[in-house]
Amino acid sequence: MTLSLFPADSLPAEIIDDGAVLLRGFAAAEEQRWVAEVTALQTRAAFRTMQVPGGKFMSVAITNAGGWGWISDLQGYRYSAVDPQTGKPWPAIPAFLGEQAARAAALAGYPGFAPDACLINRYQPGARMGLHRDQDEHDFAAPIVSVSLGLPCRFLWGGLTRQSPTRRLALTHGDVLVWGGPSRLVFHGVAPLMEGQHPLLGNERWNLTFRMAKARYPAGQPSE
Ligand SMILES: O=C(O)CCC(=O)C(=O)O
Ligand SMILES: [Mn+2]
Fold first, then answer.
1. Is 155 near ligand 1, meaning CB less than 6 Å away?
2. Which domains does the chain have, with CATH numbers?
3. Tell me, what's the pLDDT at 11?
4. Ligand 1: does its nearest atom lie under 6 Å from the Cβ of 83?
5. pTM over 0.70
6. Where, by residue number, does Fe cation bind (predicted)?
7. If you measure from the C-alpha of residue 86 to the centroid of ligand 1, how many angstroms do you get, rounded to a whole number?
8. Which of 96, 209, 212, 218 is 20 to 30 Å apart from 64, CA to CA?
9. What pLDDT, on a 0 to 100 scale, did the predictor assign at position 223?
10. What spacing in Å lies between the alpha carbon of 139 and ligand 1's midpoint?
11. Is 11 annotated as a binding residue?
């Protein structure tokens, strides 16, 4: 369903599920800025593939910005204040990115979103992300804000159990998907990226997921 609830921003908002809203093209207007910010970030914290607890490596390369970065290794999945590759804190979330994520969250019905973590995924053809839910954060009251750049993908949107049927959503450059409330723990994933060429990112897709990893939602409440 497409609703024009937000005439001030005149953006089509598609209700994907209870609590999940797709803002088509939200990031497209300032695409150069988004790409420049990520390009600068990855010079300070490089993209790398991480090992999952079972021993395999993810097909997606990742890096992080923010007070907390999501990591995976043989010990498990968790947030870390330092980049294990450098031993240094992750670069801060650039103000532009944090503001855009907060604006998208507010448009989707989640005011007071102040991310302390931004996981950046880089997909090349064939890379995928298996069905999972984002559950390493402290406060599930905060939504997830997920920004797609570059090549299109087939995003798998499931339900609250791993066995729930999945739908395929076509996410393209600039789309922002926000999920929270009753959808916060929905299983989701990304089908293998198909070959293609994007004018800005070539054969890649970048995804940024903004999270409140440790902070309480809405922002301003004391963290744990
Ligand atoms: O790449 C995407 O669109 C999804 C990424 C994701 O689900 C995650 O990083 O947890
Ligand atoms: Mn996820």
1. yes
2. 2-211 (2.60.120.590)
3. 73
4. no
5. yes
6. 132, 134, 188
7. 24
8. 218
9. 53
10. 18
11. no
Is 70 marked as a binding-site residue?
A: yes
Listed as ranges, residues in the chain with pLDDT below 50 are: 7
Upper half-sphere CA count for residue 126 (Cβ side, 13 Å): 2
Answer yes or no: is 211 a known binding residue: yes
Task: Return the structure tokens found at 70.
Answer: 């999501």
Beta-carbon neighbours within 5 Å of ion ligand 2: 134
Tokens 């789309």 label which residue? 175
Verify whether ligand 1 is closer than 6 Å to residue 151 (CB atom). no
For 89-119, the pLDDT digits (tens) are 999 999 999 999 999 999 999 999 999 999 9
64 among annotated binding-site residues:
no
Cβ of 157 less than 6 Å from ligand 1: no
Please give the structure tokens belonging to residue 78.
Answer: 């968790």
